[in-house]
Design brief:
The complex is a heterodimer of chains A (186) and B (227). By secondary structure, chain A is mainly β. Chain A is built from 1 helix and 13 strands; from the N terminus they run αβββββββββββββ. Helices cover 11% and strands 38% of the residues of chain A. In chain A, strand 3 and strand 4 form a beta hairpin. Chain B is mainly beta and 227 residues long. In chain B, the strands form 5 sheets. In chain B, strands 2, 4, 8, 10, 11 and 15 form a 6-stranded antiparallel β-sheet that branches. Chain B has a 3-stranded antiparallel β-sheet with strand order 14-9-16, with no helix packed on it. In chain B, strands 3-7 form a two-stranded antiparallel ribbon. At the A-B interface, strand 1, strand 2, strand 9, strand 12 and strand 13 of A face helix 1 and strand 1 of B.
Chain lengths: 186, 227
């Protein structure tokens, strides 16, 4: 009996020693990063649209609104800015379009839009993420732009859209054409 | 055994996910704005008919003859040529009806944006009608004055234009004494639905006693501008 007991104890002891050699533990880490979502919005309003104002067409030409903080209008020969009282043009100011952008600081994005056009006129759009020092003008229909966001946090970016309006000789009338800007992380 | 398998599976997943990092964000977004402009017709002015004062004989004192466009009302337009119905002349000097000359104002054709208004700017300084001739001696033995006639008090038939004073024979500005300074503004015109407006321009000519008998011709400039 005693031998059997000792044998059982021995077996149990040996079994315990064998389990310790078959197991091991280690600690790993799990990481996740939540980025600022890339989103562009536009608030409808007279001061937020791309507006070339009132123009006198005396043989065709171009009008340009810059894409800086304040849209500045300039015209080529035969196309003149009119700011008199007829048709309320004294209150029809040239402005650049304004979009608000959220995105991850330091990341780059691409912006693209289809240039609006019609019979006798067309607009070549460009944009500037002017919160960046030294930002350059980017053609909205020209493909990949790789604009890099600064360090202003998630939701403090403003994109100004300007453009060059080309008017053909003999075109007279109103232009009011929508254009959609799409942004995408590179 | 089950515990070991579970830990191995988690490790494999984390290693395969770019250094154990995960992205959670939309990758594109769109928004729509508008491109706007209003394009209008240019303004254009064309001279159509000359101003005609007719014929005079100089008197012993200064004389004035005035074509008053403000009282003639609308013009008659035939084949794009505007004509006044009845121009008004005031006394002064001695008018002669030979050769037969129809006194009339100058007429102009303005073109621009339908229904827009425009301002008319007339000469404010006297305009000289001149004859290019060598100075001569009149029958009385005195020298002729410089061969020019002076025109002033330009006016139009558009609202707001300067109105010449009736009976202002001596050029004082009013029948009873000194008058006001002629208004340099030729009034405000309004384009019709076709973008047209014809208007007339009158003026006053001074004829001095020693003015040389001759035919005098001069030029004056009228400017229009969108308001």
């Amino acid at each position: 009996m005693k031998n059997t007991f000792l044998a059982i104890v021995a077996i149990i002891a040996f079994a315990g020693m064998a389990n310790a050699q078959l197991t091991s533990s280690a600690t790993a880490t799990a990481n996740a990063r939540i980025l600022c979502p890339l989103a562009i919005t536009h608030t409808t309003g007279a001061d937020n649209e791309l507006n070339f104002g009132c123009l006198i067409n005396n043989g065709g030409g171009t009008a340009t609104v810059t894409n800086g903080l304040v849209g500045i209008l300039s015209t080529s020969a035969n196309l003149y800015s009119y700011t008199g009282t007829n048709a309320g043009c004294n209150l029809d100011f040239a402005t650049g379009a304004v979009f608000h952008l959220t995105g991850e600081p330091g990341f780059s994005y691409n912006a693209i839009a289809n240039d609006p056009s019609g019979a006798g006129w067309s607009v070549d759009l460009n944009y500037n993420n002017d919160i960046l020092a030294g930002a350059v003008t980017n053609d909205l229909s020209g493909g990949v732009n790789n604009t890099v966001l600064g360090n202003e946090g998630c939701s403090n970016y403003i994109v100004h859209v300007g453009g060059v309006l080309t008017v053909m000789p003999g075109f007279y009338g109103s232009i009011n054409s929508g254009f959609t800007v799409t942004v995408q992380y590179n | 055994m089950k515990k070991i398998i579970f830990l191995l599976a988690i490790t494999a997943v984390l290693i395969g996910s770019d250094r154990a990092s995960a992205f959670v964000t939309p990758t594109s977004s769109s928004a729509t704005a508008h491109a706007c402009a209003r394009i209008f017709h240019p303004i254009k002015l064309t001279w159509k008919q000359a101003m005609e004062f007719g014929s005079f004989v100089a008197g012993s004192t200064n004389g004035y003859a005035t074509i008053n466009a403000t009282t003639m009302g609308a013009l008659t337009v035939t084949n794009d040529n505007p004509y006044p119905i009845t121009p008004t002349m005031y006394g002064g000097a001695y008018r002669i009806e030979q050769p037969a000359v129809i006194e009339r104002p100058a007429t102009f054709k303005a073109e621009g944006q339908p229904f827009w208004t425009f301002g008319i700017y007339l000469p404010t300084d006297p305009v000289h009608a001149a004859v290019i001739l060598a100075p001569g001696v009149n029958p009385n033995g005195t020298l002729y004055d410089d061969p020019i006639l002076e025109l002033d008090q330009f006016n139009t038939n558009q609202p707001g234009s300067y109105v010449p004073v009736a009976g202002d024979v001596d050029g004082s500005g009013s029948p009873d004494g000194p008058g006001g300074v002629p208004d340099p503004n030729g009034g405000i015109g309004t384009f019709n639905a076709s973008g047209l407006r014809y208007f007339a321009v009158g003026a006053r000519v001074k004829i001095e006693p020693n003015d040389r008998p001759a035919e005098y011709t001069g030029e004056f400039t009228v400017t229009i501008y969108y308001n």
